[in-house]
């Protein structure tokens, strides 16, 4: 059974992530202990609320270093919602720009659409070769967010070869935005798989299965 | 690739039990909110809402326990409203497993509560619940609709449309617009009020009050609702969530 650590750094409603992972058969621990985080087969970084607040809380428990160390060793990490956003270069909310973990190039900006927040079930467009969306390519997933990355991180990385090019899944709300990224050991979703019913469960099952 | 219109069953809960009439076929215990929520999840509900109508503080503690047991069993968002008065109340509900919290009367008394909650948890957790009715008697508001309290029995003189706009400005991530005139009639949602609010408000809008047949839900979606909420038609088995969605889908409305 794959052991999954869910990073416990004070973000809201992390228990739903724990339960959804348990539902798909993972052995889950909610923890911020660096040894436990390092030892797990997979690390999930949830995130709810404001970009700046999440970054501060993450750094507060040393989560930024834990994530970096795991990735340096090629060990899987899955970011959810603001947990996706903080993997990018920076986020701008209410005119304040906060540096992110800079694993991927791109900035998190406010969505321009008739109705914001983007709240509800939307379809996504996964690319060829996706592992996360296997079997649920045509399903809807539950999104709750007002900010997103709208530039293509794969495009920005192309000049930095040799690098394993990320697989980008797009969705649309007002304009297209990054709904998920799969990039070697680091994957992330802007939507909430733990709140996305059976489709979300299948996505988590796919990720847990990939942990080996 | 548009976002699907959500269908949301709502359960009135007091002392850990569903209190409004429930007559769900094939259910041994129709009064258990956890079991009902799970049924709705299985039927394809896009979200589930609990309205805590408990009178006492002790009963509210029971609700926390129900919220937490429900959150363990359903894998779609759970909204809990009723009697939320402070940031601490919101914190407790979120910790118990709610994804969103409905705020109503407390925000009328003290609108800053919305900003305080938004600052702490983000605006996506706040559903501002507006119980509105057509103005009657001496009362006049610009939109012709006023905000009520006490289950629609007491008028406030506050314009319902202006309040929805202000609530969104203060930090509400979503507006639950409940027509007190239509509530319980099963004659359909108040589409005029829905359109009035839709034209003014840029956050998601949930239509509530008056649902009786599948066409009502489709009309509410056409009038601009991002989500449609109903209680009795689902509880009594008059309609299933799947039937409502099938009608909406056939009418060309995106549903999950």
TrEMBL record, chain A:
Keywords: Amino-acid biosynthesis, Cytoplasm, Glutamine amidotransferase, Histidine biosynthesis, Hydrolase, Lyase. The keyword Oxidoreductase does not apply. It is found in: Cytoplasm. GO terms for cellular component: cytoplasm. It comes from Georgenia yuyongxinii. CDD domains: GATase1_IGP_Synthase. Its main location: cytoplasm. The active site is at 81 (nucleophile), 192, 194. This is Imidazole glycerol phosphate synthase subunit HisH. GO terms for molecular function: glutaminase activity; imidazoleglycerol-phosphate synthase activity; lyase activity. Pathway: Amino-acid biosynthesis; L-histidine biosynthesis; L-histidine from 5-phospho-alpha-D-ribose 1-diphosphate: step 5/9. Pfam families: GATase (PF00117). Residues 6-208 form the Glutamine amidotransferase domain. Heterodimer of HisH and HisF. SUPFAM superfamilies: Class I glutamine amidotransferase-like. One of its GO terms (biological process) is L-histidine biosynthetic process. The keyword Lyase applies. It catalyses: 5-[(5-phospho-1-deoxy-D-ribulos-1-ylimino)methylamino]-1-(5-phospho-beta-D-ribosyl)imidazole-4-carboxamide + L-glutamine = D-erythro-1-(imidazol-4-yl)glycerol 3-phosphate + 5-amino-1-(5-phospho-beta-D-ribosyl)imidazole-4-carboxamide + L-glutamate + H(+); L-glutamine + H2O = L-glutamate + NH4(+). IGPS catalyzes the conversion of PRFAR and glutamine to IGP, AICAR and glutamate. The HisH subunit catalyzes the hydrolysis of glutamine to glutamate and ammonia as part of the synthesis of IGP and AICAR. The resulting ammonia molecule is channeled to the active site of HisF. Its EC number is 4.3.2.10, 3.5.1.2. PROSITE patterns: GATASE_TYPE_1 (PS51273). InterPro entries: Class_I_gatase-like, GATASE, Imidazole-glycPsynth_HisH.
UniProtKB/TrEMBL annotation, chain B:
InterPro entries: Aldolase_TIM (IPR013785), His_biosynth (IPR006062), HisF (IPR004651), IGPS_HisA/HisF (IPR050064), RibuloseP-bd_barrel (IPR011060). GO terms for biological process: L-histidine biosynthetic process. The keyword Magnesium does not apply. GO terms for molecular function: imidazoleglycerol-phosphate synthase activity; lyase activity. Its EC number is 4.3.2.10. The keyword Secreted does not apply. Pathway: Amino-acid biosynthesis; L-histidine biosynthesis; L-histidine from 5-phospho-alpha-D-ribose 1-diphosphate: step 5/9. Keywords: Amino-acid biosynthesis, Cytoplasm, Histidine biosynthesis, Lyase. It is found in: Cytoplasm. It catalyses: 5-[(5-phospho-1-deoxy-D-ribulos-1-ylimino)methylamino]-1-(5-phospho-beta-D-ribosyl)imidazole-4-carboxamide + L-glutamine = D-erythro-1-(imidazol-4-yl)glycerol 3-phosphate + 5-amino-1-(5-phospho-beta-D-ribosyl)imidazole-4-carboxamide + L-glutamate + H(+). The active site is at residues 12, 131. Heterodimer of HisH and HisF. IGPS catalyzes the conversion of PRFAR and glutamine to IGP, AICAR and glutamate. The HisF subunit catalyzes the cyclization activity that produces IGP and AICAR from PRFAR using the ammonia provided by the HisH subunit. Belongs to the HisA/HisF family. This is Imidazole glycerol phosphate synthase subunit HisF. It comes from Georgenia yuyongxinii. The lineage of its organism: Bacteria, Bacillati, Actinomycetota, Actinomycetes, Micrococcales. The gene is hisF.
